[in-house]
Fold each of these.
Amino acid sequence: MATVAAKRKISPVEEIDINEGVNLFVDEPPDSEDDDDTTDSDSSEYSGLEDEPDTDDDDGDEDDEEEDDDDDEDAENDEDEEDEDEDESDVEDSAEETSSHSKPTNQEIVTAEPDDKEGKITQLPDEYEYDSSDEEDIRNTVGNIPMEWYRDYSHLGYDVEGKKLLKPEKGDELDEFLDKMENPDYWRTVSNKLTGQKVLLSKEDVKIIQNMQKFKNPVGSDMYEPWIDFFTNEKMIHPVSNRPETKASFIPSRWEMLKVSQMVHALKMGWMKPTPTRKPDEEDETNFYMLWKDDEEPEITRQYRQYIPPPKVRLPGHAESYNPPEEYLPSEKTVQRLKKEIARGKTRTIPQKFSSLRLVPGFKYFIRERFERCLDLYLCPRQRKVRMNVNPDDLIPKLPKPRDLQPFPTTEYLVFKGHKGIIRTISPDPKGQWIASGCDDKTVKIWEVATGRCIKTFNVESKVKGVAWNPNPSLSIIVVAVETSLIIINPHVGDKLICSKTDLLLNSFEEVELPPAPTDKPKVTEWELYEDAEYELGFRLKIKHQREISQVTWHGKGDYFASTMPKGESKSVLIHQLMKRRSQNPFSKPKGLVQCVLFHPIRPFLFVATQKYVRIYNLMKQSLSKKLLSNCQWISSMAVHPGGDNVIIGSYDSKLSWFDLDLSTKPYHTLRHHTMALRSVTYHKRYPLFASASDDLSVIVCHGMVYSDLLQNPLIVPVKVLRGHKAAKGLGVLDCQFHPSQPWIFTAGADGTIRLYT
Amino acid sequence: MDENTPHVQAKFYTKQSQYSVPDTPFSVPITVGVEELSSLINGLLKGDEIEDESVKFDFLINEEFLRVALNEYLEQRNISTENVLEIEYIEHHPAPKPDNSLLHDDWVSCLQGYSQYVLSGCYDNTIRLWKTDGTELMTIPAHTGPVKAVKWITQDEEDTSPLFISGSHDQTIHIWQWNQEKKEVDCMVTCRGHTESVDCLAINNENQRFCSGSWDKMLKIWSTASASEQDEQEDSTSTQKKRKKTDQIIPTRVPIVTMSGHKEAISSVKWLNLTDVCTASWDNTLRIWDVNRALEKSQLQGPKAFFDISYSPSNGMVIAGGSDRHIRLYDPRSTDGAVVKCAFTSHKLWIVGVAWSSTNDNHFISGSHDGIVKLWDRRSPKAPLYDMTGHEDKILAVDWSIPDLMMSSGADNNIKIYSYSHHKNISS
């Protein structure tokens, strides 16, 4: 292919040269035209087929090029031969003669293939396109001079641009001999004196030469061509052309002289520029071109081709037949109805029976129907629908398989039995040896995690709504929310030293004489000390609130804790400081029904979840920093990722929303796997896990990987549904908490059990 | 049996010389099961006029028990039927029989047998002494927290005043002396040093040292001497309670060596030899420590938190139970990381106790929260030899210190004893 392409290249360039030579005296040089176009115009000059469509021209063009290819191939084949051997001189001479006779240049003899010659009669335009017999071979511009004059030079003459035409390389005697021996066409290879190229004579050429040598008709066989009798033997009254020769044909043309002298003058004065010489760079550029460029359809035609066929008219069915089957014939009633429909334009015909087709009357609505059809086609824009052929499985995001995300809790291994009511809340100790639970049976129990043994039981006055173990491992404190008061308990489990130190710390409190607070502002809470028997049991402090407390939570450092009172209006959130035995109300205005509050694990932020929103307050600046729009009806619970940048929210409308605080205030991801209200959500402190507990008796554990790379969004994959709890009083699983170090989860159910899944 | 069933050449051999049969290959039908093979061997033995009537045999191929029909086994293992199969047979182990049940007042968290005595630690802070026939000898209000570990120090049956130690939630370890003649138990030494509950104890073979593992992640090595000059006399302030009970001054002992490294609580310790201790922890690792140099020698990473391990000095292997259903067999000598040699799966809940047999290096028992004690043969990982039911609640510990008795204690306040007529150790 490449060689063909390269060869195809050569001919147009030469033709351009020719054209430019011809157009030298034309005012507008054909700059705008392409290579191909020049030949087109050339051919059309002869063929007179300007009106014909492009495509025909193109075809012709290609033929033309093919011819040229052949030409060059031939020329290349025989390049080596230059010397005129005695054996061949006769042939060559005669060839020259013939060329001068029949056609002006040798070149054309060579190029012409026999088929084309015969086709001369039938395909005139084609012939003109490739036949340039009228043109001189202007590759060499020296003219008709004996070529011997150039014998001593390295060149043969000059081309149109005045460049030297170099003689082709000669082979030595040995090459000549080898060629003679090996090339079967050697005998009919001649060299073009003007160009020095080797030319392979075709069979026809040889035939012509042979004919001429025998003094026969050079063309050979066709002696009896149909005779076109221009000058008939019949006597004509009028001459073919009776016009006398003009005077102008005898004398030199003044006009021409004028024109030439004008040009000469213009050239002298520098007004008229000779055709610009081509720079070699340009030539290089043209050496490369897009091979398949022509194959591309132009943009305009492509648009034009985007033809959308009009929708097909429905073919008439049996009902439209002139002789429909009986069952298609409507009853009287139907006829009435159909008539109405016709009036409304809904249907067109009432099925009718005719004995023969010629009895069928003309269709009344024919014109209207045609008109409407045309109107439809004209007015209704048609558009091609691009339908994507997508496998639905590909649209599902690629999630890793759960077993690649281990460890996570999978099986129920331990049941903590002992409570006799709904367990509302559980809280593991920061070391993971114990877990505290608060129950409706008015007890708080401490369990040993490894065995499920209840180690201690604290009896309180009422139902326990919240239990929270102090997250500081060097303190042994549980805070319990019972009705309107918070109870601080030292459970006395674990390290004895820590327990006693905690007691010391609690007792070391001394009432600091605060500057007298304005008396009209009543204290938000009252702190009371337990004494004697209750102290021995482990009860330490009681913080009396004004309303019922629903939830209690610790700050990560273990000094501050917050309590929530949904009905407390402006005092619905209170923050307490253990060491200073102080309570404060961070908000002056009610924010709505506060569901739960949480401290940020690292920074001084407070998350406050109301019914529909989560507000994040900066405690240092005492300002609202963010407001998360939860998109759910009623928030039930909330958990903050240990990194602090992600929050999950569970709602009573069985949705779990994951918020990426860096990303947006809207949920990054919403999981709707539960069928009933969510009661609790929680994060694992070490493993990328989070879980949600619901009234549908299931706990769903999800893998929630948060990347430190800010560009990567969290990966959320549900990995396990844990079941085991039984329903009681319409409630299911009320709390779930992860073990602080192991990938285990504790769940507290309304059935009075705590279950451990590992 | 069908004439057309293919046969396979089998050669039978045994290490029990009283049951040996001629060393010639037999052609047995491939569909044969254990029962048929057993009767075949019996038939061969009858020929030798041995009195035993129908002794039951178990068969091993490539050190693995044959539990199914022979052809199934061969298909599973992809063993060619062309070659001569070498089948080892051993006498079928008779089933352990439930022997005794020792009822306590509270959950029994630990126990160990010795001679004909059983020592048990209880969640009601007491240690109890039993005879294996079921008589309760003594109840010792030993600790102020639940007792989590008890171990006999004296392994000499002649000794009339044996020593034992106990570890408890109250963070102390007590060394006790039981004066059998006076029927008294005296606390000899209180070992203080752990800051959390002491969960496991182990005594070395020479009874010179014992080590303890605790929830505070520390491994401590102590001297077992009942009295030594280095022990400090207790301060009067710190042990007022104890003084009330015993009304005598109990010396306090501090650890010889403390080794830290575990990231979570140590749940079990075992001596491998006089210098090496293996510990199992909730941080999913088994670590081997060199006591003399007080450093960690190697570490085996497990998949889950470990609860109990047992080491067999005769085969050098460690079995471990943890927070899943599988008992895993480890080789502590291997250095190429965590290599589970074998996993034994049959329990339904956490495995909290494992114990090798002291006489048969292929047998061990395991106890789980599902209330079943299982007797395993190391060569039969698919199924245990026997299930021993009886507990009505979680099992918390198992013990096989007395070769004839397998014992387990549980949350149903019971110690269950199963008698087991063991064979002589058949290993070479």
Amino acid sequence: MSTYRYSEQYRPPEARQVTDVAIERFADIFEVDPKLMTAHVVQQVFPNWDTLRIVASRHDHLDWMHRHWAEKVVSGQRLLDELDD
Amino acid sequence: MTIAPALTEPVLDDLRQVVGGEHVLTDRAARFNRARVPAPFPVHRWSERVPDLVVLPGSTEEVSEVVRIANAHRIPIVPRDGGTGLTDGAVPLRHGIVVDVKRMNDIKEIDEVNRTCTVGTGINMLKLNEVLGRYGLIYPDDPASYPCSLVGGRIGTSGWSLIGSRYGHSRDLVLSFDFVLPTGRVIHVGDGAGRKLSKSSSGYQLKHLFMGHQGTLGIATEATLKLYPKPEAELSPFFAFPDYDSAYRAVGELARAGIATFAGAVLFDEWKVDYLRRDDEAYIPQPADVRALVCAVAYGYEDEVVAGGRRLMRIARDNGGRYLGDEVSEGDWAARHDRYATPLHGRTLAGQVIPMSWHCEDAAINYTNLPQVRLEWHEIVRRLRERFDMFDDWGMFAYTSADTGVDYLTEIDVGIWEQRLDDESWAAWVQAKKDIAEVALRYGGSISACHGSCREGEVDLVPQELGGGYDVMLDVKRALDPNNIMNPGKYGLDRAYEPEAGGAR
Amino acid sequence: MTDISPHDTGSLPSPNGDGGSGATGEFVQQWRNAAYNCFSSGHKFCREVCPVMQVTRNESWTPTAFHANVVAMEQGELQLTDIADDYVNCTGCGACELRCPNTLFTGDFYRFRTRTVDLVKAMRALAVDQGIHQPGWQRWNLLTDERSHEPVLGEVPVSQDHVRDWSQGLDIPVGGESILFVDCEAAFYRTSVPRAVAQILRRAGYEFGLMNEQWCCGGPAAEMGYLEQSQRFARHNLDDWRAGGVKRVLVLDPHDYITFTEDYPKYFGEEYDIEIVLVVELFAEMIADGRLAPSVPIERTITYHDPCRLNKRKGIWQAPRQILSAIPGLTFHDVDRVTQWSYCSGGGGGLPIEKPELTARISESRVDKAAQLGVDTLVSACPWSERPLSEAGDAKAIDVVDIHELLAESLGIEVGGRRGQ
């Protein structure tokens, strides 16, 4: 269960530089380097729950799209492994 | 801006009688919001394209009556379906009446035995497939606008589908449709007289003529579509390559392999990979030696997909492709059914984020000419970007159009910062578009594989592309639309009405 | 008027400062980048998930139009008076902004997402600020201001004296560290919901009280554009909590949950130190750890309606399903959360007050989808959805039940109260 506390929502985890233009705050969630959003478009206030909500929804959406087009997904890795057998 | 003089109260009353008062919209917001498609256009010139009024008909009969009234009063008509097209087909150039067909979105019949359905053209494919899925069926017309474009717009543009190499494109999937001609007369267009025939040799084959006309010949109102079993299995491997040439070789071999479940292959060039590295979670962490990508897609029964899939994997591997793994492959493919560009991927030369519109050139190019077209197109955009820091090269894709690998939808994506677009930069862009189209023609291609070619810049080259065929277009236009009311100003068809316009030469 | 800072909307002032002067000009400056971020993409992936668009098919009332209008204002092509009425046509469900690729695919990457709900609220607030009122909303908020609760019973007055009537016979204390906040619809109209919640909490041994002087949360006023009133109500409630030593507010209504976790933080900033707990999540946890053990079989064939404010706007969809899975006897025909992004009851955003006929069409469409599953019961977790859904359900012989009512029944609790009038 996720109790909402203001103090937990507005302090994102420390950023790690991933490339010249991207950082990572949450595991496997990349973000634009904030210094690229200073001249024309500025970043919005983004509570942590919102970042996590969007990421989870994206995964759910992509899963949904697979199901929408086909009953199941064949693993390319499995086929590749079979070539080596 | 005022209502056109022809739209006097008696005409408005007639229209209200036909479609009901609440379905005739004259307010400014309703009109401005039907003057826009995703294709970039200088915002300060928005009002040039605003219709005088909007009608929302509910049936073929209502559309026919509206067109009859417009024709009698010589009022321009512009059909609007999803308004998601990239070539301005749904944008009024001469004001007049926008006929917005979105209310006509009923599913009238699902024929499980003959594998067809009949729908109002205002229906969206994703919503249709949500229903068809319950019957184990699918209508596999899959543009990048899959979740929002409408069947009628697919007819008007003769749309291209991501998985067309397996299932065909809109022209193959739409069996027949009711069509309102510019005089208001309703005809049924399709193979033969039946609604559900896929092949007839009786008479002229009119279906192609009434698809891809960008609303210049009339309005499709009800369509019968070809259905397939919903695929049991999907495979969508993505492969990385150290250079464009090896990726190019691989995509050619994949497409030529003749695998029955093959639904398409996509080649991403170096510019596209660089672009993805800006912001795509799958590609940001990829090593620097990944410079080009290829994906191949298969749909069908699981045993078929597995058998064909082994061949695809072997071909890619033998051509030096490194499989990117199931997670990236599956995630990226699932995102391609609804992939339009995202504005914030735009960058100034200094690297700052800006909201850019997406322009997508979409020539049809033979496999053998892809490498050279690519270099010339990037050079055109580089020169443009050098002059104006409001354009951005978002890279190129090449997608197979057919199951034999003959030709590719060849796409260069260009970001355009519309907030800053002025007359000078717009003129430079129009010239660049013309240059891009000229390259496509010089290499024996077509200006457009999917969007249509009636935008400023490219449209001037259409007579050159079609030659005597363009003269036939003029004759057809004049014959079917004697008063030039149907989407006037598009495709240079006004010249059909010039005094010196003769017959086909 | 609006209390939006550039960091809420992602806009810096434009170099040429177009869009008019005064409040309207300021509004356009604040929203211009957000508006262009939609206008420039022209995706319209919002369209087929928008509940209003689905039933009206009118492109003037789409999220795309709501953004494009701001661009047209900046260009001097549209005035507030041209468009204010269009912004009535939104339930605030959040489907559009979640389904927008600018949120779903890149919102987290840029920390910049589509905010149609905020935009609609801001435009409504601008209209009120400029003296453009919707008659139904004006009256509703006037009565709310007079009575400190929304006039959910129509001609039957609501008042401070009756805000705890729902709890009659339950002997719930007033005050304490944890209090149960009951929204106006549940407190006065569907009283079975708070009665179920209170009795389940008690069954689980969870100590809680009622608020000293509870006013409407203020969320509806903000949704309809009456921002000053909303802030005044919020201030009263926060002060009341503070005065009573409240640390934790338990919320049963998704609309309150949004207000307390999105509006109040904006109003109060760092000062806002109250914990907000969503009851449906708490109950799922209590079932998981054994504090609650539903055992009375309920022989119903159900489907679950994902309340928009939980599923779309907060990503909360698992907890209600965990609860339903734990109730014996149910035959559950579930529809996944992504399909339900395009579902809505039509009950939100003030729509039923100003355009009840549109709400009715949306709820009919929702109930039709349930009927196609062959169920006899549609379970929701949002009191505001339950009135329009029940009205639509009557015609299809589908019973609309709140998830808390159902859980209480399976715990052998005699709920009492009313499921509406």
Amino acid sequence: MPVHTANDVKIWQRYDTATRLRQWGGWIAGTVITLICWQVISNGTRWEFAADAPQQLGIFLQRMFPPDWSYVNQLWKPLWDTITIATLGTLVAVIIALPLSFLAARNTTPHPIVRYLTLLVIVVSRSVNSLIWALIIVAITGPGVLAGIIAIALRSIGFIGKLAFESIEETSREPVEAITATGASRLQVLSYSILPQVMPSFAGISIFRWDINIREATVLGLVGAGGIGLNLNAAVNLLRWDQAGMIFIVIFGLVLISEAVSAQVRKAII
Amino acid sequence: MAEVASSSPHRHWRKPPWIQNRWLRWGMVLGALVYLALAIGSVSVDSARIARGLERGGRMIAAFLQPDFVSRWDDIQIGVLESLTMTVVSTIAGVLLSVPIGLGAARNIAPTPIYLICRGIITVSRTFQEVVIAIVFVVMFGFGPLAGVCTLAFATIGFLAKLLAEDIEEIDPAPLEAIRATGAGWLKTITYAVMPQVSARLVGLSVYRFDINLRESAIVGIVGAGGIGSTLQATFNRYDYDVASAILIIIITLVMLTELISAQIRKRLQ
């Protein structure tokens, strides 16, 4: 136990000197790095624009309230599109990601090379944000809901695939051995021993991702990929903050409802 | 448990269905089919546009296979540096803000008014996608990385403060009582009874949030909040797909690297 002796009095300390020095070193290094990074941010900032932020916020709120309530009638279609993008995107992702997850899991993969290729697909899909995927897809399909669905699907494949293959790797071996011992084929082993073990977590993961996708789908319109983001983009460009305020309210409601739905469904499954 | 076809001489075992109630099961299937038909029906597909787009997609893939790091290296360098520094500063700021808000949002240690305020902040932060928040901060601070830092820091609160609050609500109450019984004040109670129980997970979650912030820092630039996102969008607008490819490769590599490092750190913490 680290005890410091001063004037023949023993004083208990939580850490010994070497640990404390290391901790201080860590804190100082962290602070220095943060300050250097802040310097870069500060150099990239036009401070004269940032200085009047409180006034800007005041003007912004003034223009936003009261929100343009009648505008909500034009938002039902974009709202439906947003939900469609999230739902169909998630569905497509699930259909693609589940087979991939069996190829990626250590215990079900047919070959290590297949496994690494699948992992690469999963990593690339995960590392690119759905908004960036949307940029790419919009260039191919043109603006619209379809681009949004594909973008959401491309991002979600990696997310669902990763969590799904991890849950496959965590399955118990005994049912697999039991089914194999009956002389079942590989496919039968998968569907009768592994699938029942992972089905609840697959469903939970998919619903969880759907909930996230609702949130992501609200902004895809900023790059032209459909949904309520298109209206948001238009409102921001026209500085119609009363309309933007209405859109914020609608998004808030949508996300709260989707979160409640997803929490309820996940509770029912698990 | 299993449905048995008793009339036939060969008795077959069938997997029990997921939902036991037949009416509920088929009702849900029917509902899902109707929704799917409506949703797919509402997606407009412009096949002529896609045909033209596919040709462009071919050129795009060709360009993606030959990434061009050189011709816009200066822009890329500035963007990447901005994204990285934004990530560092916003994560640190976000953690510093999340700790008090997380403490305030924990039912067992915060008085009700503070609890409600902190929960409100967390809900707002969690509901809006980063890009939506970035729009507001760009209005306040003008274009540039400062708006991005504020966005990511604010988004960090929704994630970190929520999980921290949930952790605190689940702590062992015995040390809390023990420290309180010594006559310690609020701050000392937090330092000696609450923080030791949650700090390891807090560090782990902060490192994880660093990953997420890096990924998000690549997109907030689309609405002008700094980072590599604006450079990326510009390359798409100019059809410079080979430069876009270089940027995407850099983003994917950075995300993979930080993910590896953060996974290592989190493994050592546990």
